[in-house]
Automatic annotation (TrEMBL), chain A:
Name used for this protein in its record: sn-glycerol-3-phosphate ABC transporter ATP-binding protein UgpC
Keyword check for Magnesium: no
GO terms assigned for molecular function: ABC-type transporter activity; ATP binding; ATP hydrolysis activity
Signal peptide: none
Automatic annotation (TrEMBL), chain B:
CDD domains per record: TM_PBP2 (cd06261)
Classification via PROSITE patterns: ABC_TM1 (PS50928)
Domain named ABC transmembrane type-1: residues: 85-298
Example GO BP: transmembrane transport
Family: Belongs to the binding-protein-dependent transport system permease family.
Transmembrane segments: 30-54, 84-106, 126-144, 174-195, 229-247, 283-302
Bilayer disposition of the protein: Multi-pass membrane protein
UniProt xrefs under PANTHER family: BLR7065 PROTEIN, SPERMIDINE_PUTRESCINE TRANSPORT SYSTEM PERMEASE PROTEIN
One Pfam assignment: BPD_transp_1
This protein's name: Sugar ABC transporter permease
TrEMBL record, chain C:
Compartment list: Cell membrane
InterPro entries, alphabetized: BP-dep_ABC_trans_perm, MetI-like, MetI-like_sf
ABC transmembrane type-1 domain location: 90-282
GO process annotations (BP): transmembrane transport
Highest taxon listed in the record's lineage: Bacteria
Any Pfam family the entry gives: BPD_transp_1
Full protein name: Carbohydrate ABC transporter permease
SUPFAM superfamilies, A to Z: MetI-like
Cellular compartments per GO CC: plasma membrane
Family of the protein in this entry: Belongs to the binding-protein-dependent transport system permease family.
Amino acid sequence: MAQVSLRKVIKAYEGGVQAVKGIDLEIADHEFVVLVGPSGCGKSTTLRMIAGLEEISGGDIAIGGTIVNDIPPRDRDIAMVFQNYALYPHMSVYDNMAFGLTLRKFPKAEIDKRVKEAARILDITPLLERKPKALSGGQRQRVAMGRAIVRDPKVFLFDEPLSNLDAKLRVQMRTEIKKVHQTVKTTTIYVTHDQVEAMTLADRVVVMNHGVIEQVGPPQELYHHPATKFVAGFIGSPAMNFIPARIEEASGALNVVMNNGTTLAVPEDRVARYRPHAGKQVLFGIRPEHLTDDKTMDKSNLAPLSLTPEVIEPMGMETLAHFRHEGTEITARLDPSTPAEVGKPLALIAHMNQMHIIDPTTDKVI
Amino acid sequence: MADGGAATLPRIEAPGGASLKRFARRRSTIAFLMTLPLIAVIGGLVVWPAGYAIHLATLNRRMTSFIGLGNFEILLESETFRMVIFQSVFFAITAVILKAAIGFWLAHMLHHIPANGQRKWRGMLLVPWVIPPALSTLGWWWMFEPTYSSINWILNIFAIPSVPWLGEPWWARISVIIVNVWYGAPFFMIMYLAALKSVPEQLYEAAAIDGATSWQRLRYVTLPMMRNIISITVLFSLIVTFANYDIVRVLTNGGPRDLTHVFASYAFQVGILAGNIPRGAAVSLFMFPILAIIAFFVLRGVNRRNKEEA
Amino acid sequence: MSATTIPVKQGIYHKAGSLRRERRWALWTAYLSLIVSAIIMLAPPVYMLLTSLKTSAEVADQSGSPWWVSSPTLENYWALLGNRMFIDFFLNSAKVTIAVVALTMVISVLAAFALGRMRFWGSQALATGVFLTYLVPDTLLFIPLYQIVGGLGLLDNAWGLVLVYPTLTVPFCTWIMIGYFASIPKELDEAALIDGANWMQMLWKIFIPVALPGIIAATIFAFTVSWAAFVYPTAFITSPAEMPMTIGVVSQLIRGDTFAWGQLMAGALLAALPPVVIYAFLMDYYIAGLTAGATKG
């Protein structure tokens, strides 16, 4: 039983600057929760408060049903994996993993059993006698995880664990972390600035910005139903396009009208939702993957428009086309076989089923 | 607010009542205890003696009565002491300039030879710094010995007349400086070599492509990058050289005719050998203002350096 | 077009300047400077060695080159090693140095860990104070310390030196240990904290092993400084039985006008041997300690 609860948790520094501004979060047992956000959003501070490395300025943090505000890290029964691994450089891999258990005076046989088991799970048995110096980045990362696993703690805390790895290894270790979680099932809180990591790993993603939680939800929900402009722009890569537009009513139907007059029809099922905003200035949000050339199967609610590309980026499996439209950058994802050329107008369609309308006064998605 | 959830959760305190705040307070207490021996050393063996020296310096010879600045006045009026001031300043400045220049030159040369040979040369060139100076000065003393001087023997080969190294005041001063430079230049070399190695190679490559000659690279890349370490080393060496005792004591012991005394050796002569403790303390204290000024600049340099690295 | 102006054989490239020659010149200058300075730097110890291998008669004989030993002998060394007084010098030096090094390392490592890692009220000011005391030379303090040590009845006693030598060693060792500890990533103590270590365990099991190169460098520094200390023993010690090496050789082996030069040089070399041996075997640590004061601090 190790759910984690944050209630109105505040971190304030001297001078009144608040890094975390009263956040509430309930994390269920066995859940894998990822805190994601740009640097300085308070995600690491939140994690360090859960670890007990930072004092809590206000609110309560409970682990497994007990409030741990005043408990030093060693008595919280947590384990943490750091960005730079923080392996003890003078100890062998085995000793690194055994250190926490030795300090807790576990019997030698038990320590040995746990270390060997963790090494087996992480596939690092042949490395046990080596020093961290002699390991590659990915291997060090495994050892750091092993150090957490052997402790069999209530909660795993990961602080940007993959940031120091190269892109290829990062993908590989991401899978590894997911596999480990499926094996040991310990409640996990994972901090990253990389939304792809967040999406791929999490049961639920917590998007943070400026010390507050913007939205909490499963990855798919954040992708399809972002609650705020920040989440809409943060989740997904390349980022969602935000195009200034107006909602205009014409004979019962609604249209999104861009500043240059391009008119896109709003799907019928959304008309009721957007009607109150008719006649108002809004942001029309559409992801690059939903602004594409006319080769898709799903033919419902497509709206044609034409734009002239400034830059074409062939990626292999797809081609990205960048446009400049009245001062906003727009990106579209094209089929690689589309003959797109810089300076030549391109016929595109917008998947209006996937669009979002953002009220620019509140930055909330309507 | 009172939604109940938080209130019903049991609040446990860590065993021994070590809450996080108390944990932090305990940390401060432990930290303070760990620094106590250090504070005892600094307080008992540096700060207190320094204050005590001031007290001592205001006493009469038998330390029975207070005579204010009497010792300082007598010293300033004495021809010998004025010579000591001159000699100390002259010695420190000349020696430090020479050490810095030679050290820089050697470091530069060492930096230019292939890396695998550097270790060997560095090892040889640092030998003077490793031998306790009182002992190596004995060797120099023997090399300067009027009758048997092995240096004069070499000079004579080149038809240069023998030099009265320690017999004549100016030559004696030069001898003291030679030995000090010999002893201290390797230290500068090591410091500068470390600093040279920390200048990124790409800066030189960029400068070379920008059209800088080797002299311009030295002037516009190396020196600015090393400015801080150069000033710290020079100032630090000024203190040490200014307060030097070993070399003067062994080589000339202040002679001939008390003309080569520096503050330290004169303080020793007056305070310990002649038994006038208060006046000896006064002599040492004359160093204090000069050292304090230099120390101020060293500290500033070091702080600046820390900020750069942070 | 260019084919008409440039002979075909030379192709389109022609050689301008000579990087190679420039580099070779620089290298020659470097080696020449290094050779000359190495000769100068090594001449005194070499001459000391040569003299120590001569008999008194050969030293006094001015007919040959002083830089040559015609009949080398170890008799000066044997004479010293059979000299009870000289052996006492060595034992005094060893006793004082070992005690001072142990004392210094305990004081500085504890203090550096507290100052660098635990942070408490006034820790910053104290760290600055440590550095300032490092800048206070022994020649400023020896007279008041003479009075203080005298007041404790420890004048002319090797243990009096153990009391005052820490002023030479502790500030610098603390200072460089602060630097070494500061270079250990903060996550390492956080990991240890989460692993359940208390402060002493963290210092003993993590910081000391990880900062071992720094500890070795500081130990070497403390050793060489205590071994070479000259001002304090000269001031405080008057009887040969309590003298350490440096002052013993300088004051006791010089007798009247009939200098036993060979034996004096042999004594000086023997006295200089321990720091030189340490330097020879641990040069990298020695140099690390030397440069750490300015680069780490």
